Amino acid sequence: MIFRWDIIIEYLPYLLQGTMLTIGLSLGSIILGSVLGLFIGLGRIISNKILSSLFYCYITVFRGTPLLVQIFLIHFGVVPLFAGETNAVVAGVIALSLNAAAYIAEIFRAGIQSIDRGQMEGARSLGLTHSQAMRYIILPQAFKRMVPPLGNEFIVLLKDSSLLSVIAAPELMYWGRAMGGQYFKVWEPYLASAFIYLVLTITLSSLLNLLERRLRTE
């Protein structure tokens, strides 16, 4: 077996193009998933049992079903239902965001509940409202504890974006599969794709470790 470096070089512009889209998809999904996850996480700890139960059902459904199934349902069902036609990139961001939000919500919930209740009681006794106490006292402390699990979720989301290749979103894995399909090769396209994913995850891990050390010193 001869390793074909020439086809990797030929497809390198497409792989880099796919890498940029992978980063964009992951970043967009992280932002949307974090915002939605915070909202759901706060909803899980409110006193209203009905709303709390609804948020629990959301988390259960999205954590209990495969991401690939969710991608198919959103791409072939939800997006065409509201937009008239589907779009792989839009469907991908929606699917990744909704799935990540379920996991991030539980990270936020656990982080908030790990803070001693006396912190909230002390803030309220000083005249702060519940939302002010949550914003200025509870969340800043909880965030430091949530950085490691949030970092792990972000890395998982980055790698899960490869599943979008099955709906023809032109991200990194899509071009790796295109290379393999054109030349009937296995090692070259998938090793090249794996190497780029490894670089991305190592870079993201380093940035998260830097953030964690900075928060620890503060």
UniProtKB/TrEMBL annotation:
The chain crosses the membrane at residues 20-42, 54-76, 88-108, 154-175, 190-211. SUPFAM superfamilies: MetI-like (SSF161098). InterPro entries: AA_ABC_transptr_permease_3TM, ArtM/GltK/GlnP/TcyL/YhdX-like, MetI-like, MetI-like_sf. The keyword Transport applies. GO terms for molecular function: transmembrane transporter activity. It is found in: Cell membrane. PROSITE patterns: ABC_TM1. Keywords: Amino-acid transport, Cell membrane, Membrane, Transmembrane, Transmembrane helix, Transport. It is a multi-pass membrane protein. Its main location: membrane. Pfam families: BPD_transp_1 (PF00528). One of its GO terms (cellular component) is ATP-binding cassette (ABC) transporter complex. It comes from the Bacteria. Residues 19-208 form the ABC transmembrane type-1 domain. One of its GO terms (biological process) is amino acid transport. Belongs to the binding-protein-dependent transport system permease family. HisMQ subfamily. This is Amino acid ABC transporter permease. It comes from Oceanobacillus chungangensis.
